[in-house]
Amino acid sequence: MSDETAYPRAEVGGFVMGMFVSYADCGDAWVEAPDGSVGTLIWETGEFPYFEVSIEPGESQWGTYAVQLPLPLTTDAEAAAYLAALLPALRPRWAEWARDRERCSD
Questions:
Q1: CA-CA to 59 of 20 to 30 Å: which in 37, 40, 50, 97?
Q2: 104 Cβ partners below 8 Å, 6+ apart?
Q3: pLDDT tens across 87-103, in order?
Q4: What digits encode the pLDDT tens for the residues 33-59?
Q5: 3-state secondary structure of 39
Q6: Mean local confidence (pLDDT), 69-96
């Protein structure tokens, strides 16, 4: 995905995160998996962490997730830390979506 703005961007473990829109403590982001497929985030910075499915995975993307971590997300370095903290929840969701998609195409 292309991101022409100066929003935070990061790559961690083969996943790339960039922003559609970013404010000081919330925004919308995309996460590109190693295979080029995309999931999206509705993210917040706040005291109590959560990770919820907002839109179930579909044919064109592996889901939209509402997330909150007590981490800032205003620089590329902060984006890398935020993405790294989310990967334990994101990676298995992407992997399951990719497996299901592969099975359906056989």
A1: 50
A2: none
A3: 999 999 999 999 988 77
A4: 999 999 999 999 999 999 999 999 999
A5: strand
A6: 97
Beta pairing partners, 64 = 40, 55
> DSSP code of 56?
-
Q: How far apart are CA 23 and CA 6, in angstroms?
A: 12
CA dihedral of residues 41, 46, 51, 54 (deg, nearest 10): -50
Please say whether the beta carbons of 83 and 76 come within 8 A. no
What's the pLDDT at 61? Answer: 95
How many Å is the maximal CA-CA distance in the chain? 45
CA angle 6-10-15, nearest 5°? 135
What is the CB neighbour count within 10 angstroms for residue 77? 11
Q: In angstroms, rounded to a whole number, what is the distance separating the alpha carbons of residues 22 and 7?
A: 7
pLDDT at 60 over 60: yes
